[in-house]
Prior knowledge:
InterPro entries: Metal_Hydrolase, Phosphotriesterase. The chain has helices spanning 40-52, 73-80, 98-104, 108-117, 141-157, 171-181, 200-209, 229-238, 266-280, 282-289, 291-297; strands at 4-6, 9-11, 18-23, 55-60, 83-85, 87-89, 129-133, 161-164, 189-192, 212-216, 245-248. It has a six-stranded parallel sheet, with helices on both faces. A three-stranded parallel sheet has the order 3-4-5. The protein has a single domain (4-297), classed as Metal-dependent hydrolases (TIM Barrel, Alpha-Beta Barrel). The chain is globular. 38% of the residues lie in helices and 15% in strands.
Amino acid sequence: MSTVRTVLGDVPPEALGLCDAHDHLFLSSPQLPGQELRDASAARAELAAFRAAGGGCVVQWTPYAMGRRAADLPLLSRDTGVHVVAGTGLHQAAHYEAELLRRLRGGLADLFVAELTDGIGTSGVRAGLIKVAGGFHALDAHARWTMTAAAEAHHATGAPVAVHLELGTGALNVLDLLCGELGVPPHRVILGHLNRFPDFTVHRRAAEAGAFLAFDGPSRANHATDWRMPDAVRALADAGFGHRLLLGGDTTTAGARSVDGGPGMPYLLRGVRPRLELALGEDLVERILTENPGRAFAVDWR
Length: 302
């Protein structure tokens, strides 16, 4: 039976409720100095605010060595009643010290598999997805290395592969590599940040290939997000790809949390959802927030 691997154990996909398919409770990177998500109390408050808005599940895409705080996630999930899915994987090279990347050479796929099957470190929390990243309109050697390891881990476990697309670009390059060269089934690939590069032709080709398309990180004025998202999502729905769509918040800095004055996780349900309902209708938006994440993240785990 296909199940979603949460920090409290495997659950049936229909148990998720309304799902934020891409977000972060904890995140640290040298690329975001002074803006780290490290405060467990703030994470609890943010999850509680999401729950109060009707939310049922948050999928954390924070990968290896970026401050995931996996050991804190089960208690936060229990306290708030929100399912949480943790991630393994590796982001772009800029987020890591060179020495750490050298140490991972030759054993990256094994690391991913261990975190998916045995648990993250000593926490006992098993990851439910593999997160990797492309570059701006291209795949560099680091991206090819991490995606090759992700494909190996997918073949060993069945886990979905979630991809950060830099400014929403390179979707078709990613599919050519992961699905064409490395044999990952397209429906096991989730392409993130497509709202940041609203090329409707690329979106449609990615959907036709069979991948899930994530529109995440709303309310960012420097990206084509809120005001362009309904058009992009409606174009895909009208073409018959409503079942391939996912929505997420992608809260990456402390100031972006709702409890610190930003839009945060609740904005997905209080801001994005009603806007999309006007474009797509309530029934389809409900399915995008519930049924689609269940299919995207549910796996017959090996």
